[in-house]
Amino acid sequence: MAKVSITCFFLLCGLFLIPEKNSGQCASNEFLDNCATSLGTYTFIKAFHIKIKPRKKYTIEYSYIFSKGSSYIIVICDRNIEGKRMITNLYDRSHKLVVSNYDKENSEYHSYFVYPCTATGVYYIESYFEGTKGGCGVNIIGFSKSGHNIIEQ
Amino acid sequence: MNNKIWLFITIFVFFLACRSNQTKEEDLDVNEIIESMEDIGPEISEETLNAIIQSIPSPLETASVIKNSGVDFKSDILNAVENVNMYTTSYKKAFNIGVYGGDLGYINMYGKSYLALSYLNSIKKLADDLNVGQFFDFALIKRLASNRDKMDSLIYVSTKNFNKMDNYLREQKRGNLSVLIVAGTWLEGLYIATQVVKEKHNTEIFERIGEQKMIIDQIILILSAYRNDIYFNDLAEKFGEIKKEFDPITIEYIYREPETKEVDGILFIVDNSTTEVKITEEHIRKIEEVTARIRAEIILQADQ
Questions:
Q1: Going by C-beta distance under 8 Å and a sequence separation of 6 or more, which residues neighbour residue B49?
Q2: What is the ipTM score, two decimals?
Q3: Is the CB of A67 less than 8 angstroms away from the CB of B61?
Q4: Which of A57, B23, B113, B180 is the most interior residue, by most CB within 10 Å?
């Protein structure tokens, strides 16, 4: 019994002392730096960290003002777990879908897309995870004064 | 046996109590800092406030348009780094972190790494005074600034540091300082753009200035969220004067159906919608005048 008590004590202590490794992974510097390599020649602007708990809020939406004449890249970076991939949709000011990183027809995920902006205004970036299991990831926005491709793998 | 269980529970409760005390001590420091910042709650929800702050475009974007126009870099239009010692209140420090941040965007776009380091130094000093200097990794920044080939990395690191500081301030319920940083950055970006076109007409910069009409409304909204504070109220009025000069400008949105194209199996969506900014040289002249005057009133007057 003494051994069980001591073991329980150290296990409980451990729970308080060890940081939440899993939840911290997607918010870490290293995670962001790794994902940001996909920006290529685009200039980094912002990173929107996405963390959705299972059975909680289903989607997270941010807005950003895009400017006409600039191309924007959105890098969609998750922990690459099958069945828990992050889906990111871009909507225009009227909430009409402009582009998504998920191609429903071919069931394909793209790790980034590029949007050449032709109309300045508010755009909405919505993210969620496959199913309702939740997950964490990051959307990174970069811009360039040139660029044309809208979706690439 | 029961004694052992009680001993375990006692040790565990004691352990929790120790942790709890430690947290309280840490919280106390943060609370003292927050109090000294004359922190006040916003009059709009924090969620709305955060959403607006996040949506404001980066100063790098306008700086990029200026650089692409072929206009030479002008260091004399920037807020001098020596002015950093003039800012003694937490509000002025926060506002001028934003102003120097706007300058830094312009400097970085032109690849002036030696200047970038000086401006980052001033930003770090002000940030240290607000207890948020820890987000600036100066050893790394110095290393990157010493190598012109690392300009992209310098932009990435400094933008990342700025974003982290902003997130931290909002998490710590010091969103009022975040609002000031955003307002300072925006004002400096507008000032630089209007100074640049004073000397060289450029349609794209004209349009980019006109588009600020959409953003100034958002800036005034977040400043007004703290209007019970005299500093914010005064700032909102000053920005209101700038807004007046944007009123005659019109931005027309023309919606056209997007087209979908497939090239080599890759889906391309071509957005045919557009915006047209109706802005004249006279509008620009008036915006330039009021922006220069307001900026000088805010950043060049010593604290009383």
A1: B42, B170, B175, B179, B222, B225
A2: 0.81
A3: yes
A4: B180
